[in-house]
Write a structure and sequence with these properties.
Elements (H helix, E strand, L loop, with lengths): L6 H13 L6 H12 L3 H6 L1 E7 L4 H6 L7 E7 L2 E8 L2 E7 L4 E7 L4 E6 L4 E5 L5 E8 L2 E5 L2 E2 L1
Parallel strand pairs: 1-9
Antiparallel strand pairs: 1-2, 2-3, 3-4, 4-7, 5-6, 5-8, 8-9, 8-10
């Protein structure tokens, strides 16, 4: 084992390691990939908009009729703003609160996406919304935020 307090010895050992012809094991590669995914988990959690309301979970809505005929309202909060959406059939209307210009993307786990530019009051309408499990991605200036995944 080298003395790593000596810069020259450390550089020499690093050169030997890089020049080594030994293959990196797949297990080591998997561990490195897993560690890399955690590099910005704190930032991602700060930028996550959490579900604060889902009308399909309110008991009164389920008593009045089937969920398929009802309008569904979702609200998300976090990162200093809120996102409210209402889904009726294939159309989705929503608002970013407080109002501001931004971009909203609805992305499914399968990769399908629909995007819309939001006006300065925060309002938007989106047709042809992906179905299944989706999340809403909001881009305000250069910052990106995403909601939890929800089943539409």
């Amino acid at each position: 084992m080298s003395n790593w307090n000596d810069d020259d010895a450390l550089v020499q050992e690093l050169r030997a390691a890089v020049a080594s012809s030994e293959a990196v094991s797949e297990r080591s590669r998997d561990a490195a990939r897993a560690a890399f995914t955690w590099r910005n988990v704190d930032r991602e959690l700060e930028e996550l908009l959490t579900l604060s309301h889902d009308s399909s979970l309110v008991e009164d809505v389920l008593v009045r009729g089937s969920a398929s005929t009802e309008t569904r309202a979702l609200a998300f909060e976090g990162a200093g703003f809120g996102l409210e959406v209402e889904l009726t059939g294939d159309a989705l209307v929503g608002q970013v609160v407080p109002g501001r210009t931004c971009r909203v993307v609805v992305r499914s786990v399968a990769g399908a996406a629909a995007a819309v530019e939001v006006d300065e009051d925060g309002f938007f309408t989106l047709d042809d919304v992906p179905q299944g499990t989706v999340r809403f991605e909001v881009t305000i200036e250069d910052a990106g935020y995403a909601t939890e995944w929800v089943l539409l």
